[in-house]
Amino acid sequence: MHGFNHIEIPTTDAQKSKDFYAKIFGWKMNEDMPGYVMFTTGDNQGGGFTEESKPSEGGVVLYIEVEDIPKKLGEIEAAGGKKVKDKTAISPEFGFYGIFTDPSGNIMGLWSKQ
Fold first, then answer.
1. What is the pLDDT of residues 36-66, one digit of tens each?
2. What class is the 66-114 domain?
3. Which architecture does CATH list for 1-56?
């Protein structure tokens, strides 16, 4: 628990990102979701390439798996972070997410199945 669940990498061209990471790192790709390329790394961890978020100095958005998103967002705010997005449904298959910034201003995500 509390390990990384999903890494989302902003890109201006999902096809180029897919080709690059597949070639360089051997990641497996899945294009079942329109406009979103999902990847799985060699250790079965994964994420996706999204054109909705543009690359910036802010870097990638990392999602940390938790049991209770609202509770964890409260703990984050109490510790000096800021809630950016409340618990939000992705789909019945993919669960829920929430977004926060840490005290340094990095944008991070939380994920839970329920």
1. 899 998 778 899 998 888 776 677 888 989 9
2. alpha beta
3. Roll (3.10)
Report how far residue 108's alpha carbon sits from residue 88's, in angstroms, rounded to the nearest whole number.
Answer: 14
Q: No. of H helices and E strands in the chain?
A: 2, 8
Ranges of residues in the chain with a pLDDT under 70 are 56-57
- Listed by start position, the domains of the chain span 1-56, 66-114
Containing H/E element for 60? none
Matching CATH topology for 1-56 and 66-114?
A: yes
Q: Is the pTM of this model over 0.90?
A: no
CA Rg value for the chain = 14
Q: Which three-class secondary structure state does DSSP give residue 23?
A: helix
C-alpha span between 1 and 32 (Å, rounded) = 27
